[in-house]
Known about the structure:
Helices cover 39% and strands 23% of the residues. By secondary structure, the protein is of the alpha+beta class. Strands 1, 2, 3, 4, 10 and 11 form a 6-stranded mixed beta sheet that branches. It has a 6-stranded mixed beta sheet with strand order 20-19-12-13-14-31. β38 (580-586) and β39 form a beta hairpin. α11 packs antiparallel against α13 (662-709), α12 crosses α13 (662-709) and α16 (756-768) runs parallel beside α18 (795-806). The chain starts with 7 loop residues before the first strand and ends with a helix.
Amino acid sequence: MTRTTIDFGIDLGTTNSAIAVLRGTVTDIVKNNEDQDITPSAVYLDKRGQSQTGVRAKNRLLDEKAEDDVYVEFKRRMGTAHEYRFKCAGRMMKPEDLSAEILKELRGNVQQRLGEDLQSAVITVPAAFEQKQCAASKLAAEQAGLLQCPLVQEPVAAALAYGFQAELTKAYWLIYDFGGGTFDAAVMKAEDGIITVVNHGGDNYLGGSDIDWAIMEQIVLPELQCNYNLPDLSRDNKKWRTALARIKWAVEVAKIQLSRREAVYLEDCRIKDADGEEIELDFKLTRDVLIRVAEPIIVRSIDICSRVLKEKSLSPAAIERVILVGGPTLANYFRDILSSRLGIPLDFSVDPMTVVARGAAVFAGTQRREGASVPNATAGQYQIDLKYKPVGADEDPTIRGTVSSASEDSVAGFTIEFVNEHTHWRSGKISLKENGGFKTNLLAEKGCKNTFAIKLLDGTGRSQAIVPDNLSYTIGLAISEQPIIHSIAVALANNETEVFFKKGEPLPAKAKRIMRSSHAVKKGSGEHILNVPVVEGEVELADRNRLVGKLIISGTQVRRDVPAGSEVEVTLHMDASRILTAKAYIPILDEEFEAKIDPNTASPDPINMQREYEAEIERLEGLRETADQAEDGKATEALDEVDGGNTIEAIESLLRTAGADPDAAHMAEKQLLDIKIRLDRAENALRWPALVAEAIQKLEELDKLNDEHGTPESKLKADSLRVQVEEIIEQKRAEPLRRKIEQAMDASRQILFEQDGFWLGFFNHLQEIREALNDQVTADRLINQGSQFIERGNIQGLRNVVGQLLSLVPQEEAEAIQRGYQSGLLK
């Protein structure tokens, strides 16, 4: 019997991975060669280039000869251009290459344990994963030989593991997923047999590994430097990479042991000191010290949970339970902190280490096998294309389909019948339409996987071979469409965004927008490009969001020049696995261009980040001074959030380490972006009263110009602008209000430009500053020409002269003229 649904789910984790299979209404973990449920996400390459994965690879960290050829925690670097160097093998591998090795190992476990050649599996990703990370995960699965690999968000998988066969009334759950390297918090609603994602928050650089590093940097390393010959032993010193890997391995083991003991010593922790002498570290860790170091990190995750609830106006009392996911949540101290601070009952009845893999298997049972992973009918057989949901709340699910012949034979007079192999219920013979189509309802039983044999009979009643010859359906809790986690937009030339998909909208999604080019693209020129950046995030300013990728159209790709202002039709499509494609159609060329969004981006430049950080600190100090003078409590509160706690210390520490540790570089980049956004909010809070006053003033000035010189069209535009401004002021949105101020000023200029007196006054002003103009000979010629145009009444000619004279004005003077012209002409 051929599987008609995928059924296998893989939790591809930062520290550990696991694979599960759905058997009817229960999930089973497929154990590895060590008879364990989980496989460490570790890869080792020997000198021949042969790989070892899992426990065997992780144990190599203790082997002095092999430790430079073992890598772990590469999931955090998915979607980056980072490469791992395997010294003995002389090979470089990307994070997705290493992830592919883990997936191959899990495929091998299925072959060994179940005798199946695994070709399709659902892969889990953190909900907080960005586009590039999802694309890299998909690539890893393809490299591992998986022909079909839908992605599912880890909180969704966890919820399915709990609710698949549960008898539920309406309930809200909070999924708390604290893994080895990432954190997700998701509010889920279970109702009427469907799970829906209500809201989500997360951090791709928050997990158990951060607790390990905190223990190392705050407790272990300072003590070791005092007691041993280990100068400059720090995370940002590459020469200590091997020693740090060993110490971190021992710290991780000790951390796990402290969940059951009051104190432990670092085990098997031998390193070489600065003189090359081997030393065995004798270091004691206590649970009290662990809690002191871990609690601030756990609190960061709790703050995310609180924000996720607050954004949907949900109180802790509205949440039925917190579902715990991830190895760190096994520790009692961890659960005590969560329970006391969240005030919501904790549920860990399903193993937090395997719950995501089990839920992924449940989701896999809802996914029909497609494409190359499905066998095709051969000569003499018939192919059936089925349309139905393999999992749902209905006892009588609807099924549609079409039957066709591999030899293109007619199906006239054929009938089809479905037989429940468990209950022996039969659908009765259903006549096929001329095109082979049919529609019927099945009858399923609760508490088991219902397998229906498919019987195809020709016009004479003879049985015919059909592929596939069965289908399965299970009554159970299913997920509604997975949501878009972060809004997706196209960045515009003025640093605004055009949003295509909003956070929370269902997947898959497709949207089209018509825009215009801001500049010309010359045929054959590699220097002239049309750049369409795609960004991910919720901020109105484009550069405050994460860049997903760029659709770039070069002059070398076009058959003719593309003038500025040309129409560009941009289409974005995001599939159910959150994989994004972008296309641009340019009507003037009648040609479509598709984006190649590279999932691998280089690590941020530590030097540039340091400069940006120093600029933001200077901005912080300036805003602090302004807030104090204005006695603005809200702005002061916003600024306190930036430099409160250990935010500044944390980013400074990350910046020091960024040159040697790509993870630290990406964490620093994320935190720096967060500081910029928070300072923007504080700045907006400080400027808001002045911004509102400016908007009102500009509208009044526009009204005055309209009273004197306006047309019905310009007055109607001003009225519409006033309504929009009033709405934005009510919503207290600073960036849109700034744009409306600019639009009001543009509208005023448009009215002025139609007045002859404006150009006469502008020309006279340029005459007054003629000595400051660059190129006096040209200036004299243009001024003489302008005077002649005035005598002849040629205002259009005068406009051209004014434009040419402006190009001769020094930059600072030009900016002053523009400011002066605006204020002067509005009097």
